[in-house]
Amino acid sequence: MHLYFHIPFCKTKCAYCAFYSCTETKLIDSFVDALCYEILLRKNELDQNEIIQTIYFGGGTPSLLSQHHFLQIFNTIKSICDISKCKEITIEVNPDDISAEYAKMLHSLPFNRISIGIQSTNNERLSFIQRRHDSQQAFDAVKQLQTNGFSNISLDLIFGFPNQTILELQNDLNSLIALQPTHISTYNLTFEGETPLVEKLKNKEIHELDENTSIQMYKTIINTLNQHGYLQYEVSNFAKKGKESIHNSCYWTQKPYIGYGPAAHSYDGKNIRRWNLSDLKKYIQSFENQTNIPFDTENLSQTDLANELLMTRLRTKKGLNIKDLASKTTEKELEKIEQKLLKFILSDDIKKQNQNYKLTKKGFLRTDYIISELFL
After folding, report:
1. 210 in helix, strand or coil?
2. 192 to 53, 146, 201: CA distances (angstroms)
3. Burial of residue 34, with CB atoms counted within 10 A of its CB: 0-12 exposed, 13-18 middle, 19 or more buried
4. Rounded Cα–Cα distance for residues 209 and 186 (Å)
């Protein structure tokens, strides 16, 4: 089993972010009380003999929580399950939150992996997306964490800014590699949701980077990171050998997980998906009134499960095993998918190894298109 905790607070909202978060940090104490209430309320979803393999604190900005908050959460988790054999316990942090004291505090807790949202090493780009830190704060944060005992560190990088050049991207990559992280995640800047960047795009204040340049940037990322020993194991993720994200891999392989906090998703590993409502105040009120946490569920059909399998497995280097898909489709549907797969093999977008279908380097450049074409 894998556990995810959504910490929905930010000091300020980034211009590109469409994830659920709020800036009412005065509610953190009440939120942590409600979070611990939810953990206890849902304890029957955890088998007492089941090993918790990973725990992930995402957000939002989990690094806005104090030692007291983390101890309260971990003590509550430990009261209902054993986390002593947990392979990976990750926290996402913002660079401007990391002081020597805070890094030392995190190391005193069960965390053994850090994910840092650097996003860019260019101060103008950081200002454009309304990040609170500058490049020097990002470099200092990584060094503080390394000095205080963390060796498993992942860095996030955004590319595809309006008017960004290949040279600028190369400088970003070189700067991140010099910090010697074990893992790097790269994301093409997207314009979605009701965000300031979407408004600027609508008002034609900015323009999306052209597709050819985006493709060249992605190739640059793959080649540069591969040359420095970072193996691409998923469309957006690169890691030193043995340092792949165990938690994120659970999502791509349909493993069961439980999500706590407003907007957090859960999956039973079979066909039930559940998500808490994206409403912090209602979440806290549930604790205060001792009522159920408000949530919705979806019963996934076989078609849903097949499409999800196509989408997640083909995004990874391991690829799609056709036997896994066969259990979720009719013979006719499977035959239809195999015909489409053959088309992409002939166009050199997909290669077949035994029963596994994998995207080629060329295919990785068209991942979304290929997967959408394969959907039932």
Report:
1. coil
2. 32, 34, 10
3. buried
4. 16
Instruction: Classify burial at 22, counting beta carbons within 10 Å of its beta carbon; exposed 0-12, middle 13-18, buried 19 or more.
Output: middle
The domain 2-251: what is its CATH number?
3.20.20.70
Sign of CA dihedral 211, 214, 218, 223: positive
Every domain of the chain with CATH number 1.10.10 lies at: 302-374
Residue 328: in which H helix or E strand, if any? Answer: none
pLDDT at 353 over 90: no
DSSP string, 102-171: HHHHHHTSS--EEEEEEE-S-HHHHHHTT-S--HHHHHHHHHHHHHTT---EEEEEEE--TT--HHHHHH
Q: In angstroms, rounded to a whole number, what is the distance separating the alpha carbons of residues 340 and 313?
A: 16
Helix (H), strand (E) at residue 320: strand 320-321
pLDDT band at residue 19 using 50, 70 and 90 as cut-offs: confident
CATH numeric code, 302-374 = 1.10.10
Residue 193: cis peptide before it, omega within 30 degrees of 0:
no
* 40-97 pLDDT tens trace: 999 999 877 778 999 999 999 999 999 999 999 999 999 999 899 999 999 999 999 9
- pLDDT on residue 168: 96
2: nearest Cα among 46, 43, 53 = 53
Least trusted range by pLDDT, from 15-19, 275-279, 307-311, 361-365: 15-19
In the chain, list all ranges with CATH 3.20.20.70: 2-251
Task: Provide the pLDDT confidence category of residue 306 given band limits of 50, 70 and 90.
Answer: very high
Could you give the angle at the alpha carbon of 240 between the alpha carbons of 239 and 245, nearest 5°? 45
| Average pLDDT for 234-245 | 96
Q: What is the mean pLDDT of residues 298-304?
A: 93
